Amino acid sequence: MTEMNWYTDASLSSETHVFTAGSLAQCVRRWTRLHESHRARTQIRIGGRTGHSAYGLPVLEEAEILQLASKPDLYKV
Question: Residues 16-41, buried b or exposed e (16+ Cβ, 10 A)?
Fold first, then answer.
């Protein structure tokens, strides 16, 4: 995975619910607080906030989010 800017616009959502929209760091930290049953059904869309077209935006799934969540600099942002 390439290095990501923690301040990039992103949204954490499932098919029926948007948990948060803001920076990538906010979305990853929020994902770590979700119950395990919700984590598998959520994704992070990079580069767009809620209300904008989500088509064509990069999407991070559980394995990629887990890699980001394990980075020590996440909590320094």
Answer: eeebbbbbbbbbbbebeeeeeeebee
